[in-house]
């Protein structure tokens, strides 16, 4: 366990019996989490399993139907707490007419960051520093994803929520992405990464398998495989999902 | 050319439109709606009931002339104002909006008539004057022996404000200064904010500590700056007129409308700007009810055109059918139109009660739109 997360410290992310209902759909259906700081958590599950809704509850973009969700000890939704949270949305969420730098500066300033060096560092991290003046509509899909990540990082938030961050990012860059995420975690930051890609799961410190709004299993990749008695994570996921009574054979993550 | 491919394309378009119920409804319903509105406005024009005053006459035989004029006023559906007026008092009564028409008979024989109207709305004035003329003609025909029936008084029409030969341009020009700002700012804000909602940037904005009020204010100032520039340009074009002499084969032409401004251009500017600021929030608010940019454009026949028809730009609000008049009374454009005409044509200043009321209503409506806009921006979008 990294030194940043001593036992006396409140968990970076805490969730107690959290529910979010849309009409008759239970998008989040009784989730409990207690996640210490300084680690990378992988939120894994198929599309529509409740990953994005859980993140939106944690970032205060949605209000729970019932239950408790807190980030850094502050119950969400809490507007002022958002300076400590970075959120990379699944949608692109960039202004196409503005340049790379203008987008970054805009989102960073709304989150209270004005330090130019910090913004430059975020751009270097995603290897877009030489593209600073380029309008976003001229960027490739992968470059936009990288800029989107930089916008979530620019104010140096201690807690980061990344929703499908590596979609459309080529393998080489994906590797450097993860190296940087690892670097952030080793500095004490907490990262919750939603994905439906199992090979990314191996890079996380801890995995949360989510299915039909419920966390069906959690632990590190090896432990989960061992418990399920399977060789790969996908099979493990399906096994846990069916044990929890919410799985169906063809609906596992890829 | 493959018939099958053409058929596939045709079919796809039909399928797409069938799914987009709103576009479909608009395609069929909007023209009927706009035409119906236009029909009501044109057909249902309440017949003018002008308040008419006749100045005193002292010449011999004037009693007959006065009686004839009074009969004509009643026949034209007008209300004759009591009291004794000379020409100066008549002009004052027009300026105070106590009368709509003043008839100043020639003091010698009553064969020459001067009719004075305010000149704020040539369409209304023209209607009143021609109604009176027709009524007068009828009364004279009825009472006079046939041989004198042809002896009609010589009628001269004069306006209190603006040049006597004021045309539609002189009264429409001032109004369009405001209307354009309203229209374009609404469309631009609507589309910008729709993009914000659809493109995921609003989601990202809301994941920062920014407040709804800050968003609406930021939008208002940002678009307000562009509205300011636009209003300035339109106003300059409306007011100035540069005549370009013919150069070689090029005939002479002019640039600008050359509409005279009787009052303060800054006051007119303020009115147009307030209208534009209201449009920013209206655009944000209505963008909630659109999913595509096409659907924002669909607000034009629903929001913009009706305001153009009802706001007093072409037809005075007073003469609208009774069903539509209350609607016109809650539209911001109605107050901007009134205020702009008062300032441009009547030369009203900030001390004018009408202008003060117009400004107050515009501020109130803008504030209401700000609240509406802010309530539609919620952290919880889903």
Question: If you had to describe this structure to a student in words, what would you say it looks like?
Answer:
The complex is a heterodimer of chains A (254) and B (382). By secondary structure, chain A is of the alpha/beta class. Chain A has a domain of 166 residues: P-loop containing nucleotide triphosphate hydrolases (Rossmann fold). Chain A contains 8 helices and 10 strands. In chain A, strand 4 and strand 5 form a beta hairpin. The longest helix of chain A is centred in the last third of the chain and has 16 residues. Chain A is globular and about 50 Å long. The N terminus and C terminus of chain A are likely disordered. By secondary structure, chain B is of the alpha/beta class. Chain B folds into 2 domains: 109 residues, 3-Layer(aba) Sandwich (abc type-2 transporter like fold); 209 residues, no CATH class. In chain B, the strands form 2 sheets. A 5-stranded mixed sheet of chain B has the order 2-1-3-4-5, sandwiched between helices. In chain B, strands 6-7 form a two-stranded antiparallel sheet. In chain B, helix 3 crosses helix 5 and helix 7 packs parallel to helix 10. Chain B is elongated, with a radius of gyration of 26 Å. The mean pLDDT of chain B is 83. The interface between A and B is medium-sized, with 28 and 16 residues.
């Amino acid at each position: 366990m990294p030194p940043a997360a001593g036992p006396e410290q409140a968990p970076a992310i805490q969730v107690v019996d959290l529910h979010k209902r849309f009409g008759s759909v239970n998008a989040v259906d009784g989730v409990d989490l207690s996640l210490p700081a300084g680690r990378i958590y992988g939120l894994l599950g198929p599309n529509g399993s409740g990953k994005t809704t859980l993140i939106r509850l944690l970032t205060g973009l949605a209000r729970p139907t019932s239950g408790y969700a807190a980030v850094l000890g502050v119950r969400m939704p809490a507007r002022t707490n958002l300076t400590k949270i970075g959120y990379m949305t699944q949608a692109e969420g960039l202004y196409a007419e503005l340049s790379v730098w203008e987008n970054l500066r805009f989102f960073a300033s709304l989150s209270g960051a004005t330090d130019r060096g910090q913004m430059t560092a975020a751009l270097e991290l995603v290897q877009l520093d030489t593209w600073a003046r380029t309008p976003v509509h001229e960027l490739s899909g992968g470059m936009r994803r990288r800029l989107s990540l930089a916008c979530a990082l620019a104010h140096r938030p201690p807690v980061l929520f990344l929703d499908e961050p590596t979609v459309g990012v080529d393998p080489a860059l994906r590797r450097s992405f993860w190296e940087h995420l690892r670097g952030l975690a080793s500095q004490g930051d907490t990262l919750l990464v939603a994905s439906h890609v199992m090979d990314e799961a191996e890079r996380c410190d801890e995995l949360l398998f989510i299915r039909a709004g419920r966390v069906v299993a959690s632990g590190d990749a090896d432990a989960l495989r061992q418990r399920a008695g399977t060789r790969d994570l996908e099979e493990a996921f399906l096994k846990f999902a069916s044990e929890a009574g919410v799985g169906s054979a063809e609906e596992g993550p890829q | 050319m493959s018939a099958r491919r053409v058929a596939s394309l045709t079919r796809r378009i039909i399928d797409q439109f069938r799914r987009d119920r709103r576009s479909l409804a608009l395609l069929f319903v909007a023209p009927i709606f706009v035409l119906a509105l236009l029909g009501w406005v044109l057909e249902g024009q309440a017949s003018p009931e002008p308040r008419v005053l006749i100045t005193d006459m002292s010449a011999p035989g004037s009693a007959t002339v006065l009686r004839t004029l009074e009969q004509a006023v009643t026949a034209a559906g007008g209300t004759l104002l009591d009291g004794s007026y000379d020409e100066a008092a008549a002009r004052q009564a027009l300026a105070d909006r106590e009368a709509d028409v003043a008839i100043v008979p020639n003091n010698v024989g009553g064969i020459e008539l001067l009719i004075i109207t305010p000149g704020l709305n040539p369409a209304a004035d023209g209607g009143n004057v021609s109604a009176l003329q027709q009524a007068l003609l009828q009364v004279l025909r009825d009472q006079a022996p046939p041989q004198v029936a042809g002896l009609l008084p010589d009628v001269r029409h004069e306006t209190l404000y603006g040049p006597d030969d004021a045309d539609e341009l002189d009264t429409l020009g001032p109004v369009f200064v405001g209307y354009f700002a309203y229209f374009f700012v609404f469309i631009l804000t609507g589309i910008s904010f729709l993009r914000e909602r659809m493109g995921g940037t609003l989601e990202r904005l809301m994941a920062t500590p920014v407040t709804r009020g800050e968003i609406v204010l930021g939008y208002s100032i940002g678009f307000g700056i562009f509205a300011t520039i636009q209003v300035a340009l339109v106003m300059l074009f409306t007011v100035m007129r540069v005549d370009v002499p013919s150069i070689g084969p090029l005939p002479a032409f002019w640039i600008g409308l050359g509409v005279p401004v009787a009052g303060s251009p800054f006051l007119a500017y303020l009115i147009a700007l307030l209208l534009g600021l209201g449009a920013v929030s209206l655009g944000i608010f209505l963008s909630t009810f659109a999913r595509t940019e096409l659907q924002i454009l669909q607000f034009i026949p629903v929001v913009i055109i009706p305001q153009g028809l009802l706001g007093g730009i072409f037809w005075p609000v007073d003469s609208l059918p009774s069903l539509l008049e209350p609607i016109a009374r809650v539209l911001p454009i109605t107050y901007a139109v009134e205020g702009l005409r008062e300032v441009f044509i009547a030369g009203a200043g900030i001390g004018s009660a009408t202008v003060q009321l117009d400004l107050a209503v515009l501020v109130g409506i803008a504030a209401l739109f700000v609240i509406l806009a802010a309530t539609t921006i919620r952290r919880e979008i889903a």
